[in-house]
Write a sequence for this structure.
Protein backbone atom coordinates (compact mmCIF):
# COMPACT_ATOMS: atom_id res chain seq x y z
CA UNK A 1 0.00 0.00 0.00
CA UNK A 2 2.76 2.46 0.85
CA UNK A 3 4.33 2.02 -2.58
CA UNK A 4 1.10 2.80 -4.38
CA UNK A 5 0.31 5.85 -2.22
CA UNK A 6 2.72 8.17 -4.03
CA UNK A 7 4.68 8.74 -0.82
CA UNK A 8 8.45 8.42 -0.81
CA UNK A 9 9.37 5.13 0.84
CA UNK A 10 12.61 4.07 2.49
CA UNK A 11 13.26 0.63 3.94
CA UNK A 12 15.64 -1.15 6.28
CA UNK A 13 18.32 -3.52 5.06
CA UNK A 14 16.61 -6.77 6.02
CA UNK A 15 16.05 -9.84 3.81
CA UNK A 16 12.33 -9.12 3.46
CA UNK A 17 13.12 -5.85 1.64
CA UNK A 18 15.98 -7.15 -0.53
CA UNK A 19 13.80 -6.84 -3.63
CA UNK A 20 13.68 -3.06 -3.18
CA UNK A 21 17.44 -2.55 -3.49
CA UNK A 22 18.08 -0.42 -6.53
CA UNK A 23 14.65 1.16 -6.35
CA UNK A 24 14.41 2.67 -2.87
CA UNK A 25 16.91 3.88 -0.34
CA UNK A 26 17.79 0.85 1.79
CA UNK A 27 19.11 1.91 5.18
CA UNK A 28 21.56 0.01 7.39
CA UNK A 29 21.61 2.41 10.31
CA UNK A 30 19.85 5.27 12.00
CA UNK A 31 22.28 7.62 10.29
CA UNK A 32 21.28 6.23 6.89
CA UNK A 33 17.61 6.87 7.69
CA UNK A 34 18.40 10.44 8.76
CA UNK A 35 20.39 11.05 5.56
CA UNK A 36 17.66 9.60 3.34
CA UNK A 37 14.82 11.47 5.02
CA UNK A 38 16.76 14.73 5.01
CA UNK A 39 17.65 14.36 1.35
CA UNK A 40 14.02 13.61 0.43
CA UNK A 41 12.89 16.84 2.11
CA UNK A 42 15.75 18.96 0.78
CA UNK A 43 16.18 17.63 -2.76
CA UNK A 44 13.01 17.53 -4.90
CA UNK A 45 14.87 15.75 -7.73
CA UNK A 46 15.89 12.95 -5.34
CA UNK A 47 12.33 12.62 -4.07
CA UNK A 48 11.06 12.45 -7.67
CA UNK A 49 13.67 9.81 -8.51
CA UNK A 50 12.48 7.65 -5.61
CA UNK A 51 8.85 8.07 -6.67
CA UNK A 52 9.72 7.25 -10.30
CA UNK A 53 11.66 4.17 -9.19
CA UNK A 54 8.73 3.12 -7.00
CA UNK A 55 6.36 3.37 -9.96
CA UNK A 56 8.79 1.38 -12.10
CA UNK A 57 8.97 -1.29 -9.38
CA UNK A 58 5.17 -1.50 -9.22
CA UNK A 59 4.80 -1.68 -13.01
CA UNK A 60 7.42 -4.41 -13.29
CA UNK A 61 5.45 -6.54 -10.87
CA UNK A 62 1.93 -6.54 -12.27
CA UNK A 63 -0.01 -9.77 -11.82
CA UNK A 64 0.50 -10.55 -15.49
CA UNK A 65 4.28 -10.09 -15.36
CA UNK A 66 4.66 -12.08 -12.17
CA UNK A 67 2.55 -14.88 -13.64
CA UNK A 68 4.69 -14.92 -16.79
CA UNK A 69 7.84 -15.07 -14.69
CA UNK A 70 6.53 -17.96 -12.58
CA UNK A 71 5.37 -19.88 -15.63
CA UNK A 72 8.79 -19.45 -17.23
CA UNK A 73 10.57 -20.96 -14.22
CA UNK A 74 11.90 -24.47 -14.63
CA UNK A 75 14.31 -26.42 -12.40
CA UNK A 76 17.13 -25.97 -14.91
CA UNK A 77 16.83 -22.14 -15.04
CA UNK A 78 17.83 -19.36 -12.69
CA UNK A 79 14.76 -18.28 -10.69
CA UNK A 80 15.92 -14.68 -10.41
CA UNK A 81 13.40 -12.25 -11.86
CA UNK A 82 14.86 -10.32 -14.80
CA UNK A 83 13.64 -6.92 -13.68
CA UNK A 84 15.36 -3.94 -12.17
CA UNK A 85 17.30 -0.80 -12.77
CA UNK A 86 20.67 -0.19 -14.27
CA UNK A 87 23.40 0.78 -11.81
CA UNK A 88 23.15 4.47 -12.79
CA UNK A 89 19.42 4.60 -11.95
CA UNK A 90 19.69 3.59 -8.29
CA UNK A 91 18.67 6.14 -5.68
CA UNK A 92 21.78 7.23 -3.81
CA UNK A 93 22.35 8.20 -0.20
CA UNK A 94 24.85 11.01 0.14
Amino acid sequence: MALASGTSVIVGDVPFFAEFKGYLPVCDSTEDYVKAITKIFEDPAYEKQIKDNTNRFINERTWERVAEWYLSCTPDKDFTAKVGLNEDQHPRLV
